[in-house]
């Protein structure tokens, strides 16, 4: 059965160019406006590639100009140096109104309408999108929004969303004394002007570690934390690098002492109690303040969001502003690329884990088993959401932790990252092994299926994209980045 | 009393740890040879407590190298793949047969497999000739197949001995039905978790294991080089869920079935 195609994109061009002003007179038709020295012309059309269409035109004369008596209509493609294959008929329907029939744009691209009123020529570019989305594809595109999402506090963190905790968390984020050596801060790896990561293949705190620093963009929206999902809350994850010997090399006692000495007032404001005597309790609260700050790192709206909302609202003007290459890339993303199956929803991730054929040796004779070890660490972690530090008395936040199953396929799986601001967070993959977005797209295009289990995830298949398709997909991914910071 | 309990628990743990494993589903394919050299591969298997292992490789030299290095540990099987990319094409590739014939002339094997074969493809000329070779050399068939293909293989050779890879990824009830129907069908449980998640045996699978204690084996499935480092983890994981079964059943699935089935391939 042929898939029904959305008319939205073809309508887009018809009303995309409303921008002109009516000048000294107003044509008796709402449509795209073209203006010459003596006339203002409005037209309305809904061309689709390869289909005959009609055109309604209204013309008014500017003051002192003769009334519009004759109209000729034509269209051509200046870059291709050819016109249409058909000559339209133009019939007057009222004074200053015409109806033209028999036009056809036989290919997508940059067309130009040409109108001749009383011998005076006027023209207007009319790009006709070659990207026609099916209803199914359109539905998939809409699922990537709206953005930004409605903010929700984390019930497992009693200071989530509290202004004083956000402020304390931000100070702690930039505080080197929290590290055991006094020389490393959270922002050493999560550099704000580098997309809250470090631009390195593998992170380097006090020593180089095995994995790429993930960006903190939209980090509050994740279900699991770390490439291996070894943590089930942002506050628990925030504790990990503090204690890791290769990252900040602190101890609970050290962290607690720093806060008691440098931030006692800030702590009291944030937690509405004096700093506790128990070091472990203080450590967890530091994690919760850090989490409160990081929850605020929500990315801004992107060109894709403008497009997505325009698509939803049938706002043809905005639809047509989205680059054609990005539209083609988006169609691959939700279509034959199957990217949106895992990179799902407004955050462009399903929040789970996958083996995408990336090698996971981390040195001679050593592998990074990713999610497999992550689940084991999660279960052993006293700071997980099943434990006493979860502030959610109902423990609804712990459902995933309670039910997650350790499976044989988890060996070598890593978290599916969100793609918002992805262009700002190179290099890519859990080990930073792919330097650019183009490298990532080529990885999937040339996927080594031999690395995937025959009964594993069947959506991962070699895409065999052309160079032009790779370009388009990269351009689409670049439109997922906001022009302003979080 | 506490001391006694501790001693008993320790003894139980040691008993579980000591359970040997016959790993019926390993590959040592061309992409593993450099990153997991033969000596490392052997060391991993010994560290994991493998008693023996049925090993095939895409690029048949792999398991031959292992066999040469550790004939007490390695049981070679012949895969009809020169590289793993043959996985989806081999059953229509006429050149597979002379390749198999050549290898069978040169080396000794316990089985042909693991091969991927589904449905009516099993009746194509290349698989048929492969079955003839298995018959001629009295070899097991290690089939990563659905029920349909397994049935077709038995139709071609009713006396065939088939090791059903991953138990066909099928439900325990269907696996049981197949085992009841075919006396010469055995299963490996590689790359599936449903039978023994969290160290506990699923009730439906328990019934099948108890009905057919002689028909199952465990396996790691090292389909990428990295998964060689999963072998010890898999062995431990297997010991845990096996310990939830009666001891004699657990021992059979862990290693005795493999030893019995491939007894013709004597240790040197």
Task: Give the mean pLDDT of chain A.
Answer: 90
Structural class of chain B: alpha/beta
Largest interface: A-B, 21 and 29 residues
Specify the structural class of chain A: alpha+beta
CATH topology of chain B, which one?
Answer: TIM Barrel
Radius of gyration of chain B: 18 Å
Major beta-sheet overview of chain A? 5 strands, antiparallel
Can you tell me the residue ranges of chain B where pLDDT is under 50 for at least 5 consecutive residues?
A: 4-16
What low-confidence regions of chain A span 5 or more consecutive residues with pLDDT below 50?
1-22
CATH classification, class level of the largest domain in chain A: Mainly Alpha
Number of strands of chain A: 13
What's the average pLDDT of chain B?
A: 92
At CATH level 2, the architecture of the largest domain in chain A is Orthogonal Bundle
Task: Name the quaternary structure.
Answer: heterodimer
- The CATH superfamily label of chain B reads Metal-dependent hydrolases
Radius of gyration of chain A: 29 Å
Order of helices and strands of chain A: HEEEEEEEEEHHHHHHHHHHHEEEHHEHH
Trace the largest sheet of chain A across and list its strands. Answer: 1-2-3-7-6
